[in-house]
C-alpha cells in the first residue's frame, strides 16, 4: 500500500484509539508485564518523558536489556538487581537521546554484554547556518554500539529473537525491536501511548517519521512496548490513529496559512490551544517538522531554508 493510500485508509477509520495515561508503575520496581518481558521505570519524570524512561528485560536466565536509560546510578542498580542470578547477554538501544542510552556504559561495565544499536547519534539532515537548536532530551554523543544493526537484522538469544526495524523520525538512528513470534514490538519513542512523539528538526524528520509509521502499520506485531508509559495493545490500530492525528495537525497548519503568510509562533498559538507553556518550544519544532515536509512536497513556500525563525505561505 502506498503512503497516500494508507493515509486515506487511516482518515476513513473512525475508531480512534485514545491516549492512555494510566501507568501506576513506580520507579525501581521490576514488573513482569508479559511472560518473558519485564520492565523497570527510571525516576526521571518530565513533560517530555511522562513518568520516566522504561527499560525492558527480555527473556529469563540469559536475558537482554533494552534501553538502559539516562545517566542514573540508581536506575542502573535497579536493573541489575532485577536480573540478579541471571546473565545479561545483550544490550539493545533504540536511539541516542540522553533519557535512553547513557546508562548503557554502567550496564555494560557490570555485565560485559555487547551493545546493539543502529549507530552513533546523527541528525536527520545537515544543520542550516541560521539554526541554533538543542533538543530538550539532548543527544548522547558519547554513545557507540559494539554491533551496528540495519533494518531486518535479527539477533537471537536464549528463548527470544529480536528483529531490528528501522524507524527514523524521532531521531535518524531510531530502531524498534520486534519479536515476531510473540507479536511484540519494542518501539522506543517512535510510538507512545500517553502522547505523541516529539519530531524536532534537524534531529528529527517528519518525512521519515510518517514513513516509519507506515512501516510499523504494515507489520504483524500488535502489542507495543514504548520507551515511556504503558504498553499499547492493537498496535496497528494505534498507528493509524497517529497518522490521523498528524494529518489533522498538517490540515490545521494549512488552514492557518490559507489566511496569509505567517511565522511559527503565530501558528503555535493558533493550533495548540491551552498547551503547557513548558512545551511551547517543542510544539514550534513539531510545526517546523510538518513545514519541512510541506515545503519538500511543494505545498508550502518559504524564503531560504525552512527554519524555526522563517515565515511561511501557501505555494
Automatic annotation (TrEMBL):
Report the InterPro entries cross-referenced here: LACTB2_WH (IPR041516), Metallo-B-lactamas (IPR001279), RibonucZ/Hydroxyglut_hydro (IPR036866), Sec-metab_biosynth-thioest (IPR050662), WH-like_DNA-bd_sf (IPR036388)
Residue ranges of domain Metallo-beta-lactamase in the record: 51-228
**Which branch of life, at top level?**
Bacteria
Q: Which SMART domains does this entry report, sorted A to Z?
A: Lactamase_B
Write out the ranges of the annotated region (Disordered).
114-145
Per UniProt, the ranges with Basic and acidic residues bias are 126-144
- The protein, known as: Glyoxylase-like metal-dependent hydrolase (Beta-lactamase superfamily II)
* Origin species: Bradyrhizobium yuanmingense
Q: Please spell out the taxonomic lineage of the organism that makes this protein.
A: Bacteria, Pseudomonadati, Pseudomonadota, Alphaproteobacteria, Hyphomicrobiales
Amino acid at each position: 500500500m502506498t503512503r497516500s493510500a494508507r493515509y486515506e485508509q487511516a482518515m476513513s477509520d473512525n475508531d480512534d484509539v485514545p491516549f492512555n495515561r494510566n501507568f501506576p508503575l513506580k520507579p525501581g520496581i521490576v514488573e513482569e508485564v508479559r511472560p518473558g518481558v519485564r520492565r523497570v521505570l527510571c525516576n526521571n519524570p518530565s513533560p517530555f518523558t511522562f513518568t520516566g524512561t522504561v527499560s525492558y528485560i527480555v527473556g529469563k536466565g540469559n536475558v537482554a536489556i533494552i534501553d538502559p536509560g539516562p545517566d542514573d546510578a540508581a536506575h542502573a542498580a535497579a536493573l541489575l538487581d532485577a536480573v540478579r542470578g541471571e546473565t545479561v547477554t545483550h544490550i539493545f538501544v533504540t536511539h541516542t537521546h540522553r533519557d535512553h542510552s547513557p546508562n548503557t556504559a554502567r550496564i555494560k561495565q557490570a555485565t560485559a554484554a555487547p551493545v546493539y544499536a543502529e549507530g552513533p547519534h546523527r541528525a536527520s539532515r545537515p544543520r542550516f547556518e541560521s539554526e541554533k537548536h538543542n533538543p530538550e532530551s539532548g543527544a548522547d554523543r558519547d554513545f557507540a554500539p559494539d554491533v551496528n544493526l540495519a533494518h531486518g537484522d535479527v539477533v537471537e538469544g536464549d528463548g527470544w529473537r529480536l528483529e531490528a526495524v528501522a524507524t527514523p523520525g524521532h531521531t535518524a538512528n531510531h530502531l524498534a525491536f520486534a519479536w515476531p513470534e510473540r507479536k511484540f514490538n519494542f518501539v522506543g519513542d517512535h510510538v507512545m501511548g500517553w502522547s505523541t512523539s516529539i519530531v524536532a528538526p534537524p534531529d528529527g524528520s517528519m518525512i521519515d517519521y510518517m514513513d516509519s509509521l507506515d512501516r510499523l502499520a504494515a507489520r504483524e506485531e500488535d502489542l507495543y512496548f514504548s520507551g515511556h508509559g504503558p504498553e499499547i495493545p492493537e498496535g496497528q490500530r494505534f498507528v493509524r490513529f497517529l497518522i490521523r492525528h498528524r494529518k489533522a495537525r498538517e490540515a490545521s497548519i494549512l488552514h492557518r496559512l490559507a489566511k496569509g503568510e505567517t511565522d511559527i509562533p503565530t501558528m503555535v498559538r493558533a493550533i495548540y490551544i491551552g498547551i503547557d507553556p513548558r512545551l511551547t518550544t517543542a510544539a514550534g519544532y513539531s510545526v517546523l517538522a510538518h513545514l519541512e515536509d510541506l515545503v519538500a512536497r511543494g505545498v508550502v513556500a518559504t524564503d531560504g531554508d525552512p527554519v524555526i525563525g522563517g515565515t511561511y505561505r501557501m505555494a
